[in-house]
Amino acid sequence: MALRRDPHVLVVGGSDSSGGAGIARDIETISALGVRACLAVSAVTIQTHQAVTAIHHLQPSLVADQMRAALRANKVSAIKIGMLPTRRVIMAVAAVLSENLRIPAILDPVLASSSGRPLVEANAIDVMKRDLIPLCRLVTPNLIELAVLTGSELAVDDEDTLRQGRRLLAAGPRALLLKGGHAVGPRSTDILLLPDQDPIRFDTPRLATSMRGTGCMLASAIAAYLANARSLDDSVCEGKRFVFDKLRKNSAE
Ligand code: PLP
């Protein structure tokens, strides 16, 4: 069959048997926004909503081959990257991205589950910074990931967050979205940071609820809007609204 011409988001990430996070959430989000998804699985995880009990890595060449086949089969207009379990998988994904630099890549730098289980080898952080982050259009760390990626203590305030963000921006992504969901206060603020520009803040009321997979949802929603040729600012604004609406519905249930 010929190449499919409708815009697709290529999802690269791990499966989560509970359905709470990972590629199931990604595909659900991208489909809800009317965009098609194609897929490269990087890991299989065995989890409930409470705990991760096992993680199985896929071979780096298997991940890269899935990506190349998805790119051959479809018009891929954005690539959303989530859990990458090992250094070698990160390097394999970076190699495919470097062959496809015109396609915007959104990296959610997943490091651990909310139950605290590491989802990436500890020695992979350097490679993520050196090989992968510079190829990304947008990287979306939460405050914990930001601290790990910059070798810092958890940011205590806005100024600290911006200082760490600027340090990570020096690693070469074209933009960062610093997610404030783990902070405290009545508002949940995410900060879009671009080189040589004032930070742009996206703000919603903080809801008294929590939900798994919101990081996956946000990065996937942004990728879906980018795939539909929306600007980065618009995509972040709409993506945040999408996640907020999901959280609001979840808190009403
Ligand atoms: N499992 C997989 C496969 C993921 O990709 C992610 C996050 O992206 C998680 C678990 C973590 O999700 P949570 O923070 O909801 O535990």
From TrEMBL:
A molecular function GO annotation: kinase activity
Involved pathway(s): Cofactor biosynthesis; thiamine diphosphate biosynthesis
Superkingdom in the source lineage: Bacteria
EC number: 2.7.1.49
Name of the protein described by the UniProt record: hydroxymethylpyrimidine kinase
SUPFAM superfamilies the UniProt entry points to: Ribokinase-like
Domain Pyridoxamine kinase/Phosphomethylpyrimidine kinase positions: 16-249
Keywords: Kinase, Transferase
